[in-house]
Write a structure and sequence with these properties.
A hairpin with a 2-residue loop joins strand 2 and strand 3. The protein is built from 14 helices and four strands. Helix 1 packs across helix 3. It is about 45% helix and about 5% strand. Among the domains are: about 80 residues, no CATH class; about 130 residues, no CATH class. Strands 1-2-3-4 form a four-stranded antiparallel β-sheet, with helices on one face. It is an alpha+beta fold.
């Protein structure tokens, strides 16, 4: 039996497009146009969800692709419910259906699956033991009906295990160093110490192989003499390394970090996560406005030329040297 892709409602505010957003709070989902709330429904009220998203599309407030991307539902289901709205209006979503599909994940099955997951078995073992399709089980975990315990061991975590731990962090996505963040917030931490842990399949982890070359070329040389950052969670060295690694990973500007996993980039720097885009912009602005960029560049250029005089050249154009 084909299982429907259920919508995902994160706890934090999520943008649908430039004007629309939604937020899950206390078991309800709230929709906003600009900053004004326009609709709400219970988290598990799928009929209301399908009705309001179809209405938003028909009224021209968003595209079908926006709904698919924001809620993780399939494009076919969005088209199906838009057609249903056009044909029968709002009432079409709340009529009692004479035909009901049998539910695979009943309350009893959910309880059994959660118990098996808590016993430490993985998804494939749960699927075989309870005769549930893997996709059905995955969607139940993704929607929050089942909670997959995070496995922490001395052998290192995989990407999926780290993602689960990051999403469950109490202070926000990837903010697992609680004591250090509290200390930084009250001004008693100069910067968080760098601490690497054993991890598997870290995206873009290969940029660490370039660290010796970056240091040899002077990425951090004299940096503390010409730049500074106020007390906070992130330090000057961590910001410099992040910007260098971004360039190596072909991330052209800070805004593109919105589409990257902050926890995975934090692993590369020995942190729990990298700064948010707004925080990183503020730190770069502070460095540029209060630091001596030209002087730093001049000192490095002089050292590069003195280290290899044979590589220094002379440029002669129209009488000017």
């Amino acid at each position: 039996m084909i299982q429907a892709l259920l919508p995902i409602f994160p706890a934090e505010t999520t943008r649908i497009n430039d004007c629309l957003a939604f937020q899950k709070k206390h078991g309800h989902v709230y929709y906003f146009y600009a900053t004004m709330p326009i609709f709400s429904h219970a988290e598990h009220d799928l009929d209301s969800f399908r009705m309001i998203t179809s209405q938003l599309y028909i009224n021209g407030n968003c595209k079908q692709a926006d709904i698919v991307k924001a809620f993780g539902v399939s494009a076919n289901s969005v088209k199906r419910y838009v057609k249903k709205y056009r044909k029968g209006g709002i009432a079409a979503f709340f009529k009692n259906s004479s035909k009901r599909r049998p539910r695979v994940l009943t309350r009893e099955v959910i309880e059994q699956a959660q118990k098996v997951l808590n016993d430490g078995k993985d998804r494939s073992e749960v699927s075989k033991e309870l005769n549930i399709k893997p996709d059905t089980l995955y969607r139940a975990i993704r929607s929050g009906r089942l909670v997959e315990p995070v496995k922490i061991d001395n052998e290192g975590l995989t990407k999926s295990e780290r993602s689960a731990a990051d999403s469950q962090a109490e202070m926000g996505m990837g903010c697992t160093c609680i004591m250090e963040r509290v200390a930084a917030s009250v001004g008693i931490l100069d910067e968080v110490p760098t601490r690497f842990e054993k991890s598997y399949d870290v995206p873009n982890g290969g940029v660490l192989c370039t660290l010796p070359a970056l240091l040899t070329n002077g990425l951090l040389r004299h940096a503390s003499e010409y730049f500074n950052l106020p007390k906070g969670y992130y330090g000057l060295v961590q910001v410099f390394l992040l910007l260098a690694f971004m360039a190596l990973a072909r991330i052209r500007n800070i805004e593109q970090l919105r589409f990257c996993s902050p926890g995975e980039w934090g692993n590369i720097l020995g942190l729990d996560r990298i700064p948010e885009v707004r925080t990183l912009r503020e730190k770069v602005k502070h460095i540029a406005e209060t630091g001596k960029v030209s002087e730093w560049g001049g000192v490095l250029s002089k050292e590069w030329m003195e280290s290899d005089p044979q590589a220094a050249g002379t440029l002669y154009i129209d009488g000017h040297v």
